[in-house]
């Protein structure tokens, strides 16, 4: 029996993802602000395995940088193994094992890179269950109302797992089985290596199936355990855009529910989308038609929406943001933004400031209590505290070759229809 630290995780991400009909590798498709592979790596790193390897094949040069970024962020190695041509999941695991030390003898967890909702708790439970029992393999299973496309779990009359049969190879009666293979396993390393060396490609796909290892190990007289996952979404895979959207909607539902339970009012969850890395303070109200994306941070007691999209935007406590599109910007506490306001990257609005209707800002700092009420473009500018910019003003920042800045001091009042042709400086009042 291995100790909890003697765990290696192999992520199978070598498949071409043909059914996605995409130029983007399947595992790089995103839901809730992260790629599917990033979701999985985030969960795996919480389990803190001794070894972690990702098996790549198709478009490996496009996926490897993501793996390297994760390794850098974590400060730990993540090995990459290459499957030079698709020969099935069994061959992919053989490639993954080559990334482990030759003398490694702990638990090997194998999972697919397209299960974005698989969480750390489920992985930890699998590892603990396998480590506590004398089994050669523990496989996660789940029950689906429509199991089409999934491998079926075959059991004996004593309810013991005896094999997994892939959908393409299943008989009509076997296809009636609703308990399916979740594609997540914990193996004894020695047993896994032995069984992989005896795999055959005599099947409908002419590939080496990892699932055939189950029957081989049972034939060796070794114990096969199964761990049923009641929440099937946690182990659901993605093979096409329909499934991607379905899992994206399910993850969004869970994210919204977590915010609601933490004290955030979300008026219409059906029209609200929140990425997984977004934070929202208590007693904030999110109105219908709102998208909070990237690493947006919203303070407490705010009102955001309706019809607002914020990406990587910081919103201070008590601010109001209505019908606004903002990216890489900062909104101060008590500030008011909208309606129909466009915050481009580099916008910083101070506490109690105002950006009103049909105002566009870019690379601009608007100080505490300052107001740009309506019909104005503010680009490459610095506005001091408690100033007011009149309607229909334009900060003319580009002369066709160079962008220049405009500086407006504090307590300044400018009239309507003013063109500030940069560089311009207006002093404090």
UniProtKB/TrEMBL annotation:
In the N-terminal section; belongs to the N-acetylglucosamine-1-phosphate uridyltransferase family. GO terms for biological process: cell morphogenesis; cell wall organization; peptidoglycan biosynthetic process; regulation of cell shape; UDP-N-acetylglucosamine biosynthetic process. Keywords: Acyltransferase, Cell shape, Cell wall biogenesis/degradation, Cytoplasm, Magnesium, Metal-binding, Multifunctional enzyme, Nucleotidyltransferase, Peptidoglycan synthesis, Repeat, Transferase. InterPro entries: Bifunctional_GlmU (IPR005882), GlmU-like (IPR050065), GlmU_C_LbH (IPR038009), MobA-like_NTP_Trfase (IPR025877), Nucleotide-diphossugar_trans (IPR029044), Trimer_LpxA-like_sf (IPR011004). Residues 9-142 form the MobA-like NTP transferase domain. CDD domains: GT2_GlmU_N_bac, LbH_GlmU_C. Pfam families: NTP_transf_3 (PF12804). This is UDP-N-acetylglucosamine diphosphorylase/glucosamine-1-phosphate N-acetyltransferase. Coiled coil: none annotated. GO terms for molecular function: glucosamine-1-phosphate N-acetyltransferase activity; magnesium ion binding; UDP-N-acetylglucosamine diphosphorylase activity. HAMAP family: GlmU (MF_01631). Catalyzes the last two sequential reactions in the de novo biosynthetic pathway for UDP-N-acetylglucosamine (UDP-GlcNAc). The C-terminal domain catalyzes the transfer of acetyl group from acetyl coenzyme A to glucosamine-1-phosphate (GlcN-1-P) to produce N-acetylglucosamine-1-phosphate (GlcNAc-1-P), which is converted into UDP-GlcNAc by the transfer of uridine 5-monophosphate (from uridine 5-triphosphate), a reaction catalyzed by the N-terminal domain. One of its GO terms (cellular component) is cytoplasm. The keyword Transit peptide does not apply. It comes from the Bacteria. Signal peptide: none annotated. Its cofactor is Mg(2+). It catalyses: alpha-D-glucosamine 1-phosphate + acetyl-CoA = N-acetyl-alpha-D-glucosamine 1-phosphate + CoA + H(+); N-acetyl-alpha-D-glucosamine 1-phosphate + UTP + H(+) = UDP-N-acetyl-alpha-D-glucosamine + diphosphate.
């Amino acid at each position: 029996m291995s100790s909890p630290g003697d765990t290696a995780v192999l992520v199978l991400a070598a498949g071409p993802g043909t059914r996605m009909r995409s130029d983007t590798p399947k595992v790089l498709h995103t839901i809730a602000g992260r790629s599917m592979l990033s979701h999985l790596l985030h969960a795996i790193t919480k389990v803190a395995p001794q070894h972690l390897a990702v098996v790549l094949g198709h478009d490996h040069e496009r996926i490897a940088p993501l793996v390297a970024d994760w390794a850098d962020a974590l400060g730990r190695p993540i090995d990459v193994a290459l499957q030079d041509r698709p020969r099935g999941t069994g061959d992919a695991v053989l490639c993954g094992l080559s990334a482990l030390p030759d003398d490694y003898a702990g638990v090997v967890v194998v999972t697919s890179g397209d299960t974005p909702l698989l969480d750390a708790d489920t992985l930890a439970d699998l590892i603990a269950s396998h480590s506590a029992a004398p089994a050669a393999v523990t496989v996660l299973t789940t029950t689906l109302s429509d199991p089409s496309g999934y491998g079926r779990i075959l059991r004996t009359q004593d309810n013991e797992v005896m094999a997994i049969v892939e959908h393409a190879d299943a008989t009509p009666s076997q296809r009636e089985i609703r308990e399916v293979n979740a594609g997540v396993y914990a193996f004894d390393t020695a047993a896994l290596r032995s069984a992989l060396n005896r795999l055959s490609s005599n099947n409908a796909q002419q590939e080496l199936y990892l699932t055939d290892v189950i029957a081989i190990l049972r034939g060796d007289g070794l114990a096969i355990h199964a761990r049923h996952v009641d929440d099937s979404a946690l182990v659901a895979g993605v093979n096409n855009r329909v499934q991607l959207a379905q899992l994206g909607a399910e993850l969004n539902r869970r994210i919204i529910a977590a915010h609601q339970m933490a004290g955030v009012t979300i008026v219409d969850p059906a029209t609200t989308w929140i990425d997984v890395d977004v934070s929202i303070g208590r007693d904030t109200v999110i109105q219908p038609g709102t998208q909070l994306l990237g690493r947006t941070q919203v303070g407490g007691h705010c009102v955001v929406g309706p019809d607002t999209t914020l990406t990587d935007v910081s919103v201070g406590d008590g601010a109001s943001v209505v019908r606004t599109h903002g990216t890489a910007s900062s909104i101060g506490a008590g500030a008011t933004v909208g309606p129909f306001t466009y915050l481009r990257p580099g916008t910083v609005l101070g506490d109690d400031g105002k950006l009103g209707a049909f105002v566009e800002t870019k690379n601009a700092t608007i100080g505490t209590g300052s107001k740009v009420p309506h019909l104005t473009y503010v680009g490459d500018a610095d506005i001091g505290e408690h100033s007011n910019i009149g309607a229909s003003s334009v900060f003319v920042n580009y002369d066709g070759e160079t962008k220049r800045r405009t500086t407006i001091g504090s307590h300044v009042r400018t009239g309507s229809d003013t063109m500030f042709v940069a560089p311009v400086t207006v002093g404090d009042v």
